[in-house]
Amino acid sequence: MDWGLYASVVFGSVVSGIAILWIVAGYYHVRYYVRRRHEPETWKLQPKRMPTAKQQKKAMALSTFNLAVGGLITGHLVFFIMQGGRTPIYFEVSDYGWAWTILGLPVLFFLVDGAAYYVHRLFHTKPLYVRFHKTHHRWASPTPWVVVAVHPVEFLALQAATFIPMMVLPFHYLAVIAVFVYVLVFNIIDHSGVRLRSMWPWQGPSQYHDDHHVHFHVNFGQHLQLFDRLHGTLRREKRTYGADTFGGKGKPEDDETAPPPFVRY
Ligand SMILES: [Zn+2]
Ligand SMILES: [Zn+2]
Q1: pTM of the model
Q2: Contact 245, 237 (CB under 8 A)
C-alpha cells in the first residue's frame, strides 16, 4: 500500500471541505458581520437578532469538526476508488458518452437535493428532532458558520443519504465534485443570515432556509423548493409555526376552508 498517497488523499479531502467553509463563510462574516455590524437593518434578514461571539465560535467549531469527519470518510472513499475499488463513478467521458455525462450533472443534483429533503424531514419527526436535530436549531438566526453545525449523527446520516445516488447510477467524477462543492457553498449562503438572491432560477433566496430557522418545522428543502411544494411543507401565509408545531404544515386558522397560498420566495 502506498502510504504517502493514502495520507495525501485523506489529508487533501479533509482540508478542502474545511477550506471551502473558511473561505466562503469567512467572506460573508467579514463583509457583513464585521464591516457592517453597525447597520444590520440594511442587510440582515433578522436585524434584531445578532449572534454573540460565543454562538459564532460554537458554530465554527461544530461545522469544522463535522467537515473534518466528512472529509475523512470521503478521503477513504476516494482512495478506495484510486486503488481500483469499484463504484459506478467513471473518469472517461467515452464510457457513457457526452449526453449522459452532461445530463448526469442536473440528475445528480436533483437526487442529492431530494435525499437531503427527506433526511431533513425525517429529523423533524419529534423523537429525532429532540434527540439530534435540535442542535442545529439552537441558532434561530443562522450565520454562515451554522451551515453544518449539526449533531454528528445527523451529519453522518445526511452524508450517507447523499452518497446513495452515486453508488447506484454512474456519474462522471467531475459532476460529483461539482455537485458537492455547489451544495456546500450554497448551504453556507443559505445560512448566511444575509438577504441574498441567487442568479440561478432553481436556487431560492437565503430567506427560504432562514425562515426554516425562524419557524422550525417548515421549509425542509435544501436548494430546490420543489419537494416542499410537492408535500405542502413550504411555509404558507396566515399559518402559525413554532418549535412545538410538528408536521411541516403549521397550525391553520380556525376559519380556514382551503389551504392558504405558499409564501412567495
Ligand atoms: Zn431543520
Ligand atoms: Zn439550517
Answers
A1: 0.95
A2: no
Could you say which ligand is closest to the alpha carbon of residue 216? 1
Give pLDDT tens digits along the chain (265 positions).
889 999 999 999 999 999 999 999 999 999 999 999 999 999 999 999 999 999 999 999 999 999 999 999 999 999 999 898 999 999 999 999 999 999 999 999 999 999 999 999 999 999 999 999 999 999 999 999 999 999 999 999 999 999 999 999 999 999 999 999 999 999 999 999 999 999 999 999 999 999 999 999 999 999 999 999 999 999 999 999 999 999 999 999 988 889 999 999 9
CA of 228 to the centre of ligand 2 (A): 15
For residue 137, report the distance from its CA to the centre of ligand 2, in Å.
7
Look up residue 125 and give its amino acid: T
- Secondary structure class of 194 (helix, strand, coil): strand
Ligand in nearest proximity to the CA of 119? 1
**150: CA distance to ligand 2 center in Å?**
9
DSSP assignment string, 44-81: BSSTT----HHHHHHHHHHHHHHHHHHHHHHHHHHHHH
